[in-house]
Specification:
- The protein is α+β, with helices and mostly antiparallel strands.
- The protein folds into two domains: about 1-35, no CATH class; about 60-150, Endonuclease, Chain A (3-Layer(aba) Sandwich), CATH 3.40.960.
- It is built from eight helices and four strands; from the N terminus they run H-H-H-H-E-E-E-H-H-E-H-H.
- It has a four-stranded mixed β-sheet with strand order 1-2-3-4.
- The two termini are about 35 Å apart.
- The relative contact order is 0.12.
Length: about 150
Amino acid sequence: MIGDSALHTGVGLADLTASLESSPIVRGSVRAAQLLGLLDGRAESAGETRTRFLLSRLRVEPPEVQHCIETPLGTYRADYAWPRIKVILEFDGRGKYYDYRPTAEALLLERRRETALMDLGWRVVRLTWADLERPDLVAARLAAAFEAAA
């Protein structure tokens, strides 16, 4: 999560690699070096990072990250998408609904966007922090969405 956040804010992968290589701390450095290749600065939250790692552990077909979809309401950016079958996976943290605008307005806008996507044939699967602790549930929900889309 820290690595994704660093990349998202403009720190380069080369800088992270150099910091790791010059660190006097040895314990965990091999694992940290392995994780460098998995970082993705497009993640916009810790929840999105955790979701991406869960998808990897579940061996789900890798999705497109921050996939843009044109709708009648404008461009919608999905956290994760499988465009070929029109399935979207969204991580919903509290900040999305409480931090940027009044909650009622945020919910209404989210419902409108989701309706516009569904009108275009997209299926939307939403995850919360609690869902990330239930890989079996996430796998089942994605499998159902993939099957329905097929």
